[in-house]
């Protein structure tokens, strides 16, 4: 039993020092390393994204962006309206001129209207972009607060 206690204590010491928890500052990232990592993440918008608009009739967007030359972005995905039976395919395009991301969505259906949507915001935090999604169709306009987040 005493051997088990010594082995457990030794394992605890090894885990503590290897994870930076008392190992003289070894193993943990510095503030500069964390900042550089965050800045690298914010340099590009390429990848998988989600969007949530918690309006009375909430919508969820899931899409993948690619970056082209001169700040052009494009992508495809789906849009699901809370009251709809199924998701619809969407296309995404526009620009990323760091830090401003501007997105135009085609193919969306909201409240039984075939709508186009636009959103613009500053991509300055990994927490996402809180902005307004403006939906338009002939004789129809809605503005929804939306959170866009890179996965």
Q: In words, what does this structure look like?
A:
This protein has 151 residues and is of the alpha+beta class. The chain has two domains: 2-39, no CATH class; 44-150, Lipocalin, CATH 2.40.128. Strands 1-2-3-4-5-6-7-8 form an eight-stranded antiparallel barrel. The longest helix has 17 residues, at 2-18. Helix content is 19%, strand content 51%.
Q: How many E-type strands? A: 8
State the end-to-end distance: 47 Å
The secondary-structure class comes to: alpha+beta
Tally of structural domains: 2
CATH fold title of the largest domain: Lipocalin
Unreliable stretches: 1-14, 20-24
Q: How much helical structure, as a percent, in the residues?
A: 10-25%
Main pleated sheet: 8 strands, antiparallel, barrel
**Radius of gyration, Cα only, in angstroms?**
23 Å
CATH class of the largest domain: Mainly Beta
Mean pLDDT: 85
Strand order of the largest sheet: 1-2-3-4-5-6-7-8
Treating each run of at least 4 consecutive H or I residues as one helix, how many helices?
2
**Could you state the order of secondary-structure elements as H and E?**
HHEEEEEEEE
Shape by Cα distribution: elongated
How much of the sequence is in beta strands?
Answer: over 45%
Summarize this structure briefly.
This protein has 151 residues and is an alpha+beta fold. It has helices spanning 2-18, 31-42; strands at residues 47-53, 59-67, 72-81, 88-97, 100-110, 113-122, 129-137, 140-150. The termini are far apart.
């Amino acid at each position: 039993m005493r051997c088990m206690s010594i082995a457990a204590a030794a394992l605890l010491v090894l885990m503590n020092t290897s994870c930076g928890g008392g190992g003289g500052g070894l193993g943990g990232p510095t503030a500069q390393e964390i900042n550089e990592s965050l800045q690298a993440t914010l340099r590009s918008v390429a990848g998988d994204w989600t969007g949530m608009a918690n309006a009375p009739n909430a919508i969820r967007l899931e899409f993948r962006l690619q970056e082209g030359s001169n700040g052009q972005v494009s992508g495809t995905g789906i849009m699901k309206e809370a009251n709809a039976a199924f998701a619809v395919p969407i296309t995404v395009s526009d620009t990323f001129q760091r830090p401003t991301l501007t997105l135009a969505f085609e193919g969306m259906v909201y409240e039984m209207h075939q709508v186009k949507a636009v959103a613009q915001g500053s991509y300055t935090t990994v927490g996402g972009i809180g902005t307004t999604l403006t939906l338009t169709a002939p004789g129809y306009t809605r503005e929804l607060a939306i959170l866009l987040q890179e996965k």
